[in-house]
Each structure stands twice: as C-alpha cells, then as structure tokens.
Amino acid sequence: MTDKPKKMKTPDTQTVTEVKHWTDRLFSFRVTRPQSLRFRSGEFVMIGLMGDNGRPLMRAYSIASPSWDETLEFYSIKVADGPLTSRLQHIKVGDEIIMRPKPVGTLVHDALLPGKRLWFFATGTGLAPFASLMREPETYENYDEIIMCHTCRDVADLEYGRQLVQSLPDDPLIGDMVGGKLRYFPTTTREQSPVMGRITDKLEDGSLFKDLAGLPICKETDRAMVCGSIGLNTDLKRILEGFGLEEGANSKPAEYVVEKAFVD
Ligand code: A2P
C-alpha cells in the first residue's frame, strides 16, 4: 500500500503595504486586509512567515489598527535571535506575510461592564491593542474619559504611541469624538523624561491620581484594560483587585481585562 501524498493547505497571505522602523528594537507595518475579515478593535490574529522547514512560523499579534480601517496595522518588537521577529523585521513593501484570519481576544469593549472612566495600561509593544481602541468610535461613545498610560524603558520607545495620540484630534473619522476625552500619560523607567517610574508604583503610592488631578480608581465608575509583560499583568491584576475591580471576559463582562503583550 502506498502513502497518499498529503494535500498542502495554501496559507492565507497578505501583502505588506507600509513599514516604519521606530528604533532598532521596534517597528510597525501595514498589510492588506482580507475582504471577509471582521474583528473587534483590541483583538489579535496569528501572523507569520514560512519557515525554512516549509512550515508556517506563526505568532499572535494584536491588530493595532481599528476595526473600520482598510488595511491592518501591527506593532512589533525586533528580537535578534527571535524565531519570527529576526526575519519579520526585514519585510519590505510588496512582501507577503501569512495571516490566519481568526481574530480573538479579551481586550474588547464587550468584556467590560458600562463605566465612566476607562484606563488603558500598556508597557512596550503592549500599546498595540490600544492603538486600535484609541481609534475606535465606541471607546468615546462608551466613556467620558479615557486615560492611556504607557510605560517604556526609553523615550524613543514611546514615539509610536506619542505620534498616534497626537494625530487623533485631526483624524477625519474620530477627531471630533476624541477632543478633551483622551488623556495620555507616558512614563519611562530607564531614560530621563518628564515623568519617570513604573505605572504600578504610581498607582500604589497614589501619585498617578495626583498627577492626573483625578480621583482614585473605584468599582462603580472605572474600567481598565491591561496589556504588557507577565510581570506587569500580574502586578496590575493585584492592584486593580485591591481597588475592588473584578476581571471580565467575553462571556462574563466585569470591570477589567488583561492580555499578555505577545513577544518572541
Ligand atoms: P523597568 O525598566 O523598571 O523594568 P520591557 O522592555 O522589559 O518589556 O519593559 C517595558 C517597560 O515595562 C519598562 O519600562 C519596565 O520597567 C516596565 N515593567 C516591566 N515589568 C513591570 C512590572 N511588573 N510592573 C510595572 N512595569 C513593569
């Protein structure tokens, strides 16, 4: 009996339309969007490249563009010996990447109960889902105030987020909604900048509320979304639960949600 040849499934490929390098460790890029792809701002998909062994090498990436955008944006770290990002960092306009068009994730509005103030807590490339949510009209329809807290080691690591936040008031679709509602709180932990320190320390010592001239977080009014390293996520869970917030999910909306920033 002879083995039947295995039928190879053609991977879903998308074409790179834009690449921007922010630092020697960070870059963003855009790819074409499959016509059939529907996703909720804040979700992630699997993307990758064909490996040397002929098998796709895939990783989870938050979609950094909003659900209404014509192309898909991603924000990535570059890891010199990272199986995927060591190669992905060299992509150029016109190249193809593989994408599995099955968006999932918990950093979505559906996983939160209604509230008044929404906190986005990100470190490093954990900003990506919030780059999507900050461009999502529902964010501004659902909340009176949105506070984007982003902590990075160095000032240059903040630049992608800083430029995005700065551009929002001029955005033809959501510019008018953003006005006065979105606040941006960037901090660095290694390089000198106007506000230094880990966001977790600032929450615990209350200096964040003093700096923002706002009330401490409370269960009735505040909702939070967290995306960073496992250490950040664990620490923030403890801190948010200390304020009385409970973790939500798509199936059971509550007061805060967490997702790991996916890195190589
Ligand atoms: P720090 O410089 O004090 O480690 P990384 O580049 O390692 O992913 O870190 C990105 C940012 O996240 C850094 O500013 C880092 O601060 C901060 N960070 C790392 N772990 C935590 C944590 N457990 N709580 C708060 N911030 C953290």
Description of the structure:
By secondary structure, the chain is an alpha/beta fold. It has two domains: 12-104, Translation factors (Elongation Factor Tu (Ef-tu), domain 3, Beta Barrel), CATH 2.40.30; 109-258, Nucleotide-binding domain of ferredoxin-NADP reductase (FNR) module (Rossmann fold), CATH 3.40.50.80. The chain is 20% helix and 30% strand. It contains eight helices and eleven strands. It has helices at 85-88, 128-133, 137-142, 159-167, 175-178, 199-204, 207-211, 230-242, and strands at 13-21, 26-32, 44-50, 56-62, 71-77, 96-104, 117-123, 145-152, 182-188, 222-228, 256-260. Strands 4-3-6-1-2-5 form a six-stranded antiparallel beta sheet. The longest helix is centred in the last third of the chain and has 13 residues, at 230-242. The mean pLDDT is 94. The chain binds adenosine-2'-5'-diphosphate (A2P).
Report the bound ligands by name, code or SMILES.
Answer: adenosine-2'-5'-diphosphate
In spatial order, strands of the major sheet run 4-3-6-1-2-5
Q: Could you give the order of the helices and strands?
A: EEEEEHEEHHEHHEHHEHE
Low-confidence blocks of residues: none
For the secondary structure, the number of strands is 11
> Total domains, how many?
2
Total helical segments:
8
Overall morphology: globular
CATH top level of the largest domain is Alpha Beta
Q: Summarize the biggest pleated sheet.
A: 6 strands, antiparallel
Binned strand content: 25-35%
Distance between the termini: 43 Å
Secondary-structure-based class equals: alpha/beta
Radius of gyration: 19 Å
Percent helix among the residues? 10-25%
Give the second-level CATH assignment, the architecture of the largest domain: 3-Layer(aba) Sandwich
CATH topology of the largest domain: Rossmann fold
Provide the residue-averaged pLDDT. 94
CATH superfamily of the largest domain: Nucleotide-binding domain of ferredoxin-NADP reductase (FNR) module
